[in-house]
Here is the input.
Amino acid sequence: MLAVIRSPKYPEFDNLELEHEQDLVFRSRQSLKPAKTGNIAPDFIFEKDNFRWQQFHNGVGTHNMVPLRQLLNKTLVLAFYSSAWQEHGLDMLKQLDAIQNEVRANGANLLVISSESGRRLEKLAWDNSLSLNFYFDTEHNFAEKFGIYSDNDPAWNRFSGIDDNVPLLSTYVIASYGRILYDHVEWDFANTFPSDNVILSVRLQGLNT
Here is the structure.
């Protein structure tokens, strides 16, 4: 007599019990589109918060706000810096420090937008006797408006050795009426900082006003 092998009894399965996996969301990459010479600079507003501002004179820092009316009523050299750029970033700061007296002599102001503040920057300024004005934009609002920072195109996608998403090293010369007179964005670090071009742009604007 043949033995009958019975299948184990399973409870009935309801399709409603299936847990559907969420569809993967792919964020399309949108390349950075930096503001260019000839464009009207994006609107930006400086906050009147002393902790957003830091002035260095020969490496010694003070948290004093730069007078906004004086800052915006003249041609403005606006540079974007982050310590993540290491020696490249330091070189830019040194070059800006070297030309700032000439910038002022031609009726313009110079301001560095930094993505971080703190002791690292203070030590950098002290070690290199920098005399620069900084505005801290830790949320990258300024850099995003100028098209040199985006979560959709992080810096580490373009540069080896960069672990944080930071704004591109960039320098803009902006007329008091808002037009960008000159732009320099570091894409490959193949050339030296264009100090002469920055000074020339400031000088020409001074002659036209």
